[in-house]
Structures are given as structure tokens and as C-alpha cells.
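User: I'm putting together a small comparison set for a docking exercise, and I want a reference complex before I start. The sequence is below, and the ligand is fe (iii) ion. Could you produce the 3D structure with the ligand included, as C-alpha cells?
Assistant: Of course. I'll restate your input first, then give the C-alpha cells for the complex.
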Amino acid sequence: MSIINNNKTDPNKILPMTYLWARQHYKDGVANNWTPEEIPMQDDIEQWKNPRALSPQERKLILWNLGFFSTAESLTANNIVLAVYNHVTNPECRQYLLRQAYEEAIHTDTFIYCCDSLGLDPEEIYTMYLNIPSIKDKDEFVVELTKSVFEPGFNTIGNHNIQKFVHDLVGYYVIMEGIFFYAGFAMMLALKRQRKMTGIGQQFEYIMRDESLHLAFGADLINTIVAENPVIWTPDFKADLVDLIKKAVHLEKAYAYDACPEGILGINPRQFADYVEYIADRRLERIGLPKVYETENPFPWMSTAIDLPKEKNFFETRVTEYQVGGLSWD
Ligand code: FE
Ligand code: MN
């Protein structure tokens, strides 16, 4: 049995299953089901329209994070559908990939919903990935390092090609979804903790919960490919991956300093930079690579936000169940 390059795999025959972790991630994804319309935006709209409710720095931070995520979600979705799905023919993994693709559609929809409800200029938001250097740099970095799997005729036969494919998986799952999303998550959740833009904050919380599953699936996929093809896991290849992650941390820190100017009450860019290092160490460990930073987590509340199966909504009056069947915002 092997997860890629297995000519005995019938993509249409899902039972019996070989990779039960893929099935588990699928079920966990379904249990997290949500749609953006479930979250009321009225308070956000009022704050956004009130010139005194948010400072110019806070507005910038919100716009930049909406700008980064609005297009990053599509980049991720394209990679799943056009690259990963093509080469991972194992049916239980494909079932998960279809689920993930749907969740990316929900995330894309979330940013449409945010733009619509706040009355933002789509031309501004959806061109930030071209016009704002620290956003552009992140997107270009991922696109560049995953380019080879998009070349016509690319296949995963042979150790060199398997390495290229693992490069792609590290690029999207570990770096894009696992590092480049996290300074933004922390910024929007830090604002939410101050009761600022709590609707968008809750949307980001739900997206983060989905993304932590995407990352878990991606890491399991990478680890399985490596376990089944141990010859690709050379010291050079590992050093190459660590190097990419270090470059990604550098870009994400630059983004954090850029998107989060000094002067926002209780929020300072240095903490986001530390958080990025902390997160990067967790990602390295998850795929069997050595830690680089040994930085302490400046935001212990972030892990609570990811892990909690339920949480109080922002009125703090009732507990909102995350699980399907318990959703009630009425
Ligand atoms: Fe997403
Ligand atoms: Mn994702």
C-alpha cells in the first residue's frame, strides 16, 4: 500500500480504508460546519460607520487582513483542486480534499460577506495581493515554491518528483495555511478580545478552526509520504525545507510589522512576530523537523480559541455550540 504512485488504488472504491486519519479529518471538518451568514454583522457595521469607534491604525489592520485572506483562500483552493487532488488518488484522502475545497469556498464566501456588509471597495480589497508589497511577497513566495507541480506533464514518479510534490504540500499546508494565516488570525482575534469587530472576529475564529484541520491533514499527508518513501528524506532536503520555513517566518514577521502599526492599544507588532516564531516551531515539529526558535507563546489564548469545542458568543450570555445541531445564534 502507498498513498501516492500506487497503481492498485481505485479512486472510486473507498471501502475498505487504509488511511483512517484522513477519514477522521473529514468527520471533524463536517462537525465544524458553519456558514458566514450565521454570524450577525450589525455591531461590526455600526462600529465601521462610526468614525470614533475605531482608530485609523485599527482600520488599516482590518483592511489589510481582509485583503490578504480574500485572495489567499482562492490560491489555496486552486492548489487543492488543480495540484493535490490530481496526484493523491487514494479515495479517503480525496474525500477529505473535496471537503477542504468546500471549506475554502465557505472562506471565500466569508470575505464576500464582509466586503458586502461593511460596504468595502472590492477593487481595493481584491488587489491588495498585487499592490501591497508585504502581502504580495507572501503570495509570490508560495506560488514560486509550488510552481513545478503545475508544470504540464508533472508526475510524482521518482524521488526527485516526490520531493517536488512534498515541497508543494509544505508550501501550501505548512507555510500558507500554517504560518502565513496566523499573524492575521492573532490580530483579528486580539481585536475581538477588545470587543472590536466581533462579527469578523468570530468569522476568523471559525476559519482558524477549519485551517487547523487543513494543516493537520496536510501534515499527516506529508508524514505518510515520507514514511512510505524514506529515501526522499535526505539531510539536504530537510535542510531545504527548514530554510523555506525560516524564509516564510521572515516574510510573515514583515507582514505583521506592516499590517499592525504601533499605537494600537494593547496590541504590539513585536508580539505577533514572536507568535509567528512560536507557531513555526510547532509546524516544524509536526512534520518531524527540528525546532528553530524556542520562542514562548505570547498568546496562550490563541490555542484555546482553536481547540474549544464550544465558546460563549460575544454577548457572553449563552454558550454557542460549534457542533452541527447546536448552532444557535437566534
Ligand atoms: Fe481557508
Ligand atoms: Mn484552508
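The radius of gyration is 20 Å. The longest helix spans residues 56-87.
User: Thanks, that's exactly what I needed.
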